[in-house]
Task: inverse folding
């Protein structure tokens, strides 16, 4: 899902929680930020794959490469590595759920991540794409063996 939609959905859901469900403004802000900051794992994946730590280069690469990726056939896409997004995975959610028993701050982050993931999973389902890539990073790592990196795309 495009970044702008995550910001919009995150804002709308945070607003609803604050206005109608008596969440504090601070909780609403944390939920809002968590609903789109989770995508920083896209940068981490880019940095790991390329060795380039410059976030501006990562943004430029995504802007240039995503349209190319979308034009590839399903068979061609199968030749390339999939992104490994650690903050989108089930293990990260479990850690946040456990930490939410320690402090409500982590529950707010988990709610924001949940908003993000519902939007991502709906987007994947609508586009007919598999859901496992967003939920199980370990499985993606296993499937990526002996595939081309996206850097040359």
Result:
């Amino acid at each position: 899902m495009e970044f702008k939609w995550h910001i919009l959905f995150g804002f709308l859901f945070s607003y609803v929680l604050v206005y109608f469900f008596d969440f504090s403004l601070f909780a609403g802000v944390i939920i809002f930020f968590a609903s789109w900051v989770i995508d920083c794992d896209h940068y981490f994946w880019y940095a790991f794959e390329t060795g380039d730590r410059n976030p501006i280069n990562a943004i430029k690469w995504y802007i240039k490469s995503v349209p190319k990726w979308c034009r590839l056939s399903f068979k061609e896409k199968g030749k390339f590595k999939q992104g490994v997004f650690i903050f989108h995975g089930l293990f990260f959610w479990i850690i946040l759920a456990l930490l939410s028993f320690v402090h409500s701050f982590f529950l707010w982050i988990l709610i924001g991540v949940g908003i993000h993931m519902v939007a991502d999973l709906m987007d994947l389902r609508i586009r007919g794409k598999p859901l496992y890539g967003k939920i199980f990073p370990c499985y993606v790592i296993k499937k990526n063996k002996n595939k081309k990196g996206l850097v040359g795309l």
Q: What stands out?
A: The longest helix spans residues 104-126. Residues 40-152 form one domain. DSSP finds nine helices and no strands in the chain.
